Fold:
Amino acid sequence: MSTLMNYTYQSFNFRGRKRLRPFYDLIYSIAGEEYGHIEVVSYAINLLLTGTTKRGFDPEPGPLKKATDARNSRHFIASGQASFPMDSMRDWWTGQNVFSSGNLKLDLLHNFFLECAARANKMRAYEMVTDPTAREMVGYLLVRGGVHVVAYARALEQLTGVAVTKLVPVPDLSNKAFPETRKYESSGLHRILYTFSQNDYQQVGSIFNGPHPEDGQPLEVIFGSPEGVPAPDLEEEPQLNAPGSDGIDPDMFAAAAAKMGIKF
Ligand code: MN3
Structure:
């Protein structure tokens, strides 16, 4: 949420776009990717929580009873065991986390710090879980977050002449320490920046270029989006939607859809 909203507002607020166009293109492109990342995190949470409780009928007395001992039991009361913009201690994400100073150098420094800190937190989150869905999601985000670290380091280098990429990786641990990252890195995902538009943000390549600071492979811009995957369509929420209790006959919808030539 922080990276998405920080870069989104910095893009909206960006002044002097004519002179500083490549930097605007860079921040806007990364904001686009961050939208996809909150989607990935949400689906991972929803997948992890699917099946953690059963429907509230006999022989399952108190199917949500365990939630009374959960650190964040409100989450189980107020949601269908799904994602929310809050942290692990139920602190809600708010707009107070947006940094948009109006000074490009300061904003880029902030963004570099934000990506490096997020990388450190992801590594610790990885070490808290063993579930393959959670580890896969963290592994993917480590690789893509690493691209953003490099992108902001390159931007600061261009703007100031300071060799920021010499700091990379921050923290020192390489993505290679995490087995889930290897397939993404071997397909080049650690050195590709996407613009999420074929026609806009054309100047981003004047910043995102040269060798990757860790393995020396060339940094590359793709004008467009990475290939997506179908979003999981999960079962209805257990406690509030017992099948049939709402009187909806799923076969009726299927028959009506078939008449209209709609296939599911
Ligand atoms: Mn990022």
Summary: Residues 21-49 form the longest helix (29 residues). The beta strands are 192-194, 220-222.
